[in-house]
Amino acid sequence: MKESVPTEPLRPADDVTRHVGYLLKRAQAALRGAMDKVLREYGLTVPQYATLELLAQHPGMSNADLARATFVTRQSGNVVLRGLQEAGLITRPATADHGRALPARLTEEGRTRLAEVQAAVYAVEQRMIEAIPPQRVAALLTDLDRIAAALEG
User: Fold this and answer.
1) d(C-alpha 28, C-alpha 9), whole Å
2) Are 36 and 48 in contact (CB under 8 A)?
3) Which residue from 47, 79, 131, 144 has the highest number of Cβ atoms inside 10 Å of its Cβ?
């Protein structure tokens, strides 16, 4: 069942720092800063960490799929994958079996590094969640999904 839509257009807040978009960007920037700080201790960037997490869940993802899922361009995704491969954290075949995709997989060292860093990253998310009353977390997640869906198409 679809929720009712306001009949009057929304009026922007008098203070730009109270706009939904501004507050979402502020939260995203704070999250990115906290993650950068934690990941730096492990020699990883946010896109590298996200790639390791995704490959742990979905081995064999292509560069294009990983780039989309980690919110970077394909070119940047390829740089991330090359860096992870050079660090011995992932492996990719030298040539594609079919098409152009080179499916990536975590190495044992990649699984170990991911396990080492997960607790620190999850602690950042826990700090974020603890700022919200527990009964509102599920609604927030639903609302964030709805916002993304509304803007994606």
Assistant:
1) 26
2) no
3) 47
pTM: 0.83
Does residue 8 lie in a domain region? no
Provide the residue range defining the domain that includes 135. 20-152
- Residue 125 resides in a domain: yes
Distance CA 150, CA 40 (A): 34
- Looking at the domain assignment, is residue 7 inside a domain? no
Burial 107-133 (b: 16+ CB within 10 A, else e): beebeebbeebeeebeebeeeeeeeee
Full pLDDT tens readout for the chain, 153 residues: 455 555 565 666 688 888 889 999 999 999 999 999 999 999 999 999 999 999 999 999 999 999 999 999 999 999 999 999 999 999 998 766 666 677 899 999 999 999 999 999 999 999 999 999 999 999 999 999 999 999 997
Number of domains in the chain: 1
Long-range contact pairs involving 64-72 (C-beta distance under 8 Å, separation at least 24): 64/101, 66/104, 71/47, 72/47
Summarize the chain as % helix, strand, coil (round to 5): 65, 5, 35
1, part of any domain:
no
CATH, residue 143 = 1.10.10.10
